[in-house]
Design brief:
The structure is a homodimer. Chain A has one domain (3-304): Farnesyl Diphosphate Synthase (Orthogonal Bundle). Chain A is built from 16 helices and two strands. Chain A has helices spanning 3-17, 24-34, 41-52, 58-79, 96-100, 102-121, 128-142, 148-154, 162-184, 190-213, 216-219, 225-228, 234-256, 264-278, 281-295, 301-304; strands at residues 89-90, 93-94.
């Protein structure tokens, strides 16, 4: 079974355990939030690492992968709400609160966070200690101190700790993804945590670049939100060219830090896929076009709007 | 150490693990949501049962008790938001979104849900299997199928399954509280689950009565929300007198179903305290006054407003 098929099967199993049995409109909202998904990058990383580490209990990796994606989906639903991005679109469809109302969007996010932990905690396993470690790692990457809740909260602070902001906003869940793959397979976690974190930092820079450069059709969501909302970003910090160079550097570091393992080539390809997906060649060309415009201010009007 | 002191110490330890290290404004919002608390009824039930079952690892009970209260606090914060109750007051102070804004109130709720699971998952224990069971029980009582997320979601449905609504809105977390006490102590869970559920049902009926009868000063929150918002309630189902009789019946059943255990008398007293706290003698008198008014419609104006 290829990874994509395995992930969707794991997601459906996890969803069936609780979400299907929710009150009817909430169940529909939960499904809208989770299916069809995006690239499922976090569960893909988790399972790829689990396989590379010679997993002995695949269902444990499956449940951890589903938990990571549920947390990610929950964060998208809550970030889209009017008190944050007030996003109209998500993955090319109406955002959850536009389709189901703010009340159900709020509850769907809450329900997905809880389900992430519940379906993992209920996974039968011969390795209860691994289960507790998986739950703790995913919670830490989601939580208010150094997880995605913290990442979002930094945007409401007057003074932003940029390093903590970037690490918690994206890198934490990537770090958790590769860590969970190792834990599920009973392997040492430190080297896998490090390469996941580097990849997550690269992803955050690519996301910042996309926000400045990308187009709505490609991303399936409104763009220039960071600039509109005055958020800190790698672009405002390093400039366009600096951010692109930073992205390339982080991508290389992430790839080079993948530990020796079975079929390391596949993991290298997955890392390259992750970066290329958010920063495709067209975006690199767009950076060059913007820079050319900035050198010749008269032709800048179309891009500075 | 009495239960109240033990609970606050456990809550502070759990809070310190993650919430204290959140971005500054979020950390402040999290503290506002958790301290000072209300009666801490759910953790009190959990620890009282754990003691009654002869707990062998008190820190496990402490962490479960803190998790239950964090989930409860999270539900209060999210229920108070404008898309639900739009509450101005909570525990006699400004509600979280009135004090910190909707964005931080949303994140504080999310952060408390995650923290509930994280601090429990990170609890060192010689009983990893008990830990997984505690996490699963608390998640189920919080979640979208039969937990408090489901309870809130039933209020957004056109057709309400009244039994599921009542069970998930309050009874689920009470059932989890007594269950967790038993699990933390390594005791059989079924009899403790049953008496917790009965107490939770009684609590829900008392809450419905308080909403119709109570006064704002006693509850520290706006009243008559159920009626204003057209929500299903025990009062609209059974009438005032019927609801009061139902409450008394459930309270007795709950008390009588407490399994044989060490110092059963203390548990009986705790159950009586829980019911009396939400349905004090003054409320019983108020029910009688309302009924008298209903028999003499001319004097009804002050109460039907």
């Amino acid at each position: 079974m290829d990874l994509g098929t395995r992930i969707e099967a794991a997601m459906e199993r996890a969803f069936e355990l609780t979400c299907t049995h929710a009150p009817p409109r909430l169940a529909e909202a939960l499904r809208h939030a989770v299916f069809p998904g995006g690239a499922r990058i976090r569960p893909r990383l988790c399972l790829a690492v689990s396989v590379a580490c010679g997993e002995d209990e695949p269902r444990l990796g499956d449940a951890a992968a589903a938990a990571l994606e549920f947390i990610h989906c929950a964060s998208l639903v809550h970030d889209d709400l009017p008190c944050f991005d007030d996003a109209v679109l998500r993955r090319g469809r109406p955002s959850l609160h536009r389709e189901f109302g703010e009340d159900l969007a709020l509850l769907a996010g809450d329900g997905l966070i809880v389900t992430a932990f519940e379906q993992l905690a209920r996974q039968p396993t011969a390795h209860a200690a691994r289960l507790a470690e998986l739950l703790a790692i995913i919670a830490r990457a989601s939580g208010p101190a150094e997880g995605i809740v913290a990442g979002q909260a930094w945007e409401s602070e007057d003074r932003v700790d940029l390093e903590r902001y970037h690490r918690s906003k994206s890198a934490a869940l990537f770090r958790a993804a590769t860590s969970c793959g190792a834990i599920a397979a009973g392997s040492p976690v430190a080297p896998w945590a490090a390469c996941g974190e580097l990849l997550g930092e690269a992803y955050q820079v690519a996301d910042d670049l996309a926000d400045r450069i990308g187009d709505c059709a490609t991303l399936g969501k409104p763009i220039c939100r960071d600039r509109t909302l005055g958020r800190p970003s790698a672009v405002s910090e390093h400039g366009l060219l600096g951010a692109l160079a930073h992205l390339d550097r982080l991508s290389l570091q992430a790839r080079d830090s993948i530990p020796p393992c079975a079929d390391r080539r596949s993991l290298v390809e997955l890392f390259e896929f992750v970066v290329a997906r958010l920063c495709p060649p067209a975006m690199r060309h767009a950076v060059e076009r913007v820079l050319a415009c900035e050198r010749e201010p008269d032709s800048d009007s179309a891009l500075s709007a």
